[in-house]
């Protein structure tokens, strides 16, 4: 296989098996294995774990089929990548093929995909996403059937990237944006670049920190938005200098799957200053909010956070 066509992890494992890997590269591989063994969580920034698994498996198979394979510790460590990922894959999502489209359904975990053009798609929980294995025509079209996803699209002026989500079509050349397709509402929020959104004879152009909402009444509404609320769910660390609880509810739902239940509508406009860390959990964020505000946050069993004013303060 041509080196440039290999998956980055395949190149690393190949060098590991040959004993030509640098200390920095070896640290990356072993760190990945140690993190996975301890946490059982896939790092979305690594790309698609399926690509990683298949690349590593192919590299090991190629080496083992060589005339004089080197049976040593490198094979044992590399093989453990495949074993762990194979076990991990069984609980993360379901995948099937319909016609020329691959259909992926996530369950209770987030995941990611590396598309044929190099674009990254980060899939949230309970999401159904359709994509072709290769983009053969003069456009790159995929479909977000349900749920939410964040896209980092590889730029190609000759081949626009189109996402179908319900009645909406989102068209870009190369940019990053988030789409939510839930119940009777579709939301497109732009982080970088320019995005075109259309439904029927309606169309709007979006720039960073702008978003479009479509509801069943058939109209597209363009408005200002905070892009960091829509892309932070892929586990970034970010500081909010001034954000309302109503706005934070979007982040909590996308990142953790929990919705806010405001017992008093005016609490939606309660503003806070808060840092959301990459390592934060739903519990740690609720604890932070409870400490810095005079508001009570109670995590319920039905993926809901009940929010009330603390009368004792």
TrEMBL record:
<keyword id="KW-0472">Membrane</keyword>
<protein>
    <submittedName>
        <fullName>FecR domain-containing protein</fullName>
    </submittedName>
</protein>
<feature type="domain" description="FecR protein">
    <location>
        <begin position="102"/>
        <end position="195"/>
    </location>
</feature>
<keyword id="KW-1133">Transmembrane helix</keyword>
<dbReference type="Pfam" id="PF16344">
    <property type="entry name" value="FecR_C"/>
</dbReference>
<feature type="transmembrane region" description="Helical">
    <location>
        <begin position="74"/>
        <end position="91"/>
    </location>
</feature>
<dbReference type="InterPro" id="IPR006860">
    <property type="entry name" value="FecR"/>
</dbReference>
<dbReference type="Pfam" id="PF04773">
    <property type="entry name" value="FecR"/>
</dbReference>
<dbReference type="InterPro" id="IPR012373">
    <property type="entry name" value="Ferrdict_sens_TM"/>
</dbReference>
<keyword id="KW-0812">Transmembrane</keyword>
<feature type="domain" description="Protein FecR C-terminal">
    <location>
        <begin position="238"/>
        <end position="302"/>
    </location>
</feature>
<dbReference type="InterPro" id="IPR032508">
    <property type="entry name" value="FecR_C"/>
</dbReference>
